[in-house]
Amino acid sequence: MNKRLSSTALATIGSVLIAAVMAITGCGSVAGGPVKDTLRINLGTEPPSLDWHRSTDSTSFDVICNIMIGLSQYTDKLTCVPGVASKWDVLDDGKRYVFHLNPSARWTDGKPVLASDFYYAWERLLNPATGAEYASFLYDVVNAKEYNTKKISDPTKLGFKVLDEQTFEVRLKRPAAYFIYLTAFAPTYPMRKDVVEKHGDRWTEAENIVTNGPFSLKFWQHEYKMELGANPQFVHGEPKLKHIRMFMVPEQSTAFALYENHELDYIDNRSISTPDLERFRNSPEYHNFPLLRNTYLGFNVTKAPFTDRRIRLAFSKAVDRTIFPKILRRGEMPLYTWIPPALPGYDPSSSVKFDVAEARRLLAEAGYPNGKGLPPVEFLYPNRDDVRLIVEAVQDQLKRNLGVSVRLQNMEWKVYLQTLNLDPPVMFRGTWGADFPDPETFGNLFTSSNGNNNTRWKNATYDRLIEEAEGEQDQQKRYRLYAQADQLLCVVEAPISPVFSATQNIMIKPWVKGIAMNPLDLQFFQNVEILD
Questions:
Q1: With bands split at pLDDT 50, 70 and 90, how would you rate the model's confidence at 31?
Q2: Is 202 among the domain residues?
Q3: What DSSP character marks residue 352?
Q4: CA nearest 181: which of 440, 514, 492?
Q5: Is 400 exposed, middle or buried (0-12, 13-18, 19+ CB in 10 A)?
Q6: 367 is in which domain, residue-wise?
């Protein structure tokens, strides 16, 4: 278990980090101000990967979504508009899409973006050798699941093909109302085969990567800083910003001090501790908005004691979710279902109830009255101040309400994600942010074939309900199917325990214009500018 640093040690590290960032920005110890045509932000940590087939986290996507663009792209209001494709035809009652690529679309090395770049990317995403956790994103495509799960091995049988180098055709198994959203999100972006094959595992390094978005990756000092530069060849016009400097300061109070010193122009939850938020809640620079992002307690159902659903349910029912908004004080909402209330498919009858008496009864029935005989449970979480508050509250409630001992273990973000992917512990703090504004983005996560399902839970009934919902054309019936699946997930089987829906808290310097606020928390900086 990692030991928590003392406040003295944190202060020392913070001072070193502040000095280092000031040195690189050339400001020394003098308070800074705006830098012409340059946006300075804090990623909080090193992006685990810029390979958009191997990335699953918001830190990586914050970078990727500003250096790449797909067939379509999101507006700030989360509608899909042309991206690389200038238009598309929806044919055969929604089972066939034909995308017509914009001939002006270019990679940063000047080569045109071609339909074959999408074919290569989509085949690579689905290829089982890639091990992409987002492969299921394309399972609506004809033979995509069969290819990814090795039931077929011939990629020419996949339901997409190059009609010509400006035309890309996609055939679906059935109409999917949300399909166009998928073409705007990172896993479906095009990819250059020649670049990947030439550079191997180092193809995403700044000196090798070739991209097609509004910015290009100019510099990457690992664990420290990235710099993006405006792409003059971007298909929708060169962005107003010339540079984006992305720092990797993990300690929230340190990052906030940089913002106060005018060394950062924009910060979010990764850089704002609760005490700092309280001090600046009334500042005109502060903004708060709800997100389609859920925090949950995850249980690895293949490891004792959580092989027993009664113990999973006992843990879930023993947690009072109303405590988290009081601790974090950011406007979070207690969450009792997996599909959040903001989306269709939400049904309050699918809610898990806080019920200490029932939780104790279930634990006793499983053979551990008042927690006696139950070995200490390891609880994994990423190393961040606000997350520590969450897991300590859970630890305290499980001890008081069930007599259960929980041992906390924290890990640096990249290692935490690798651990969840390779060998999930018995219990972990999980989060999931919507990839698109539809209940499918939450419902699909805990299907048996989803690579991001770190609980290892497999349930044929749940899989069937989600599959039926995906193809159902009657929207009300479709939403009822998601609600039924949600009840099975949260109330009956409980491989997870939803705890709260998050909000985003940001601070923006007055000289920054064009920062978007949306419930998917996607930040596209192509329309941002620094005022004189």
A1: low
A2: no
A3: P
A4: 440
A5: exposed
A6: 289-503
On the question of pLDDT at 27 being above 60, the answer is no
Q: What is the pLDDT of residues 74-109, one digit of tens each?
A: 987 888 999 999 999 999 999 999 999 999 999 999
Q: Is the residue at 344 inside a domain?
A: yes
d(CA 369, CA 361): 8
Report H helices in 296-439: 309-317, 323-328, 356-365, 385-402, 413-422
Q: For all residues of the chain together, what is the average pLDDT? A: 92
For the residues 319-342, what does the mean pLDDT come to? 95
Cα(100)–Cα(71) distance, rounded to whole angstroms? 9
Instruction: Identify the CA nearest to 84 among candidates 198, 235, 229, 191.
Output: 235
Written as six digits, the tokens of 344 are: 């269709």
Q: Is the pLDDT score of 324 beyond 60? A: yes
Q: Is the pLDDT of residue 1 over 50?
A: no
Mean pLDDT confidence for 284-299: 96
For tokens 């005490």, name the residue: 275
Distances (CA, A) of 417 to 396, 452, 518: 25, 10, 25
Rounded CA-CA distance 488/461 in Å is: 9
Whether residue 224 is found in the same domain as residue 317? no
Alpha-helical (H) ranges within 151-204 are 179-182, 193-199
- What is the distance between the alpha carbons of residues 396 and 263, in angstroms, rounded to a whole number? 38
Q: Based on DSSP, count helices (H) and strands (E) in the chain, helices before strands.
A: 16, 19
Please check whether residues 187 and 234 belong to one and the same domain. Answer: no
